[in-house]
Amino acid sequence: MPLPIQNPVTTPFDSRHFRHALSQFATGVTVITTRTADGTMLGLTATSFNSVSLQPPLVLWSLGCTANSMAGFNDSTHYIINVLAADQSALANRFASRIEDRFADIALDFSANGQPVLRGAVAWFECSNRSRYPEGDHIIFVGEVTHCEVGSGAPLVYYGGAYCSASALPAA
Question: Cα-flanking dihedrals φ and ψ of residue 30, to 5°?
Answer without folding.
Answer: -125, 160
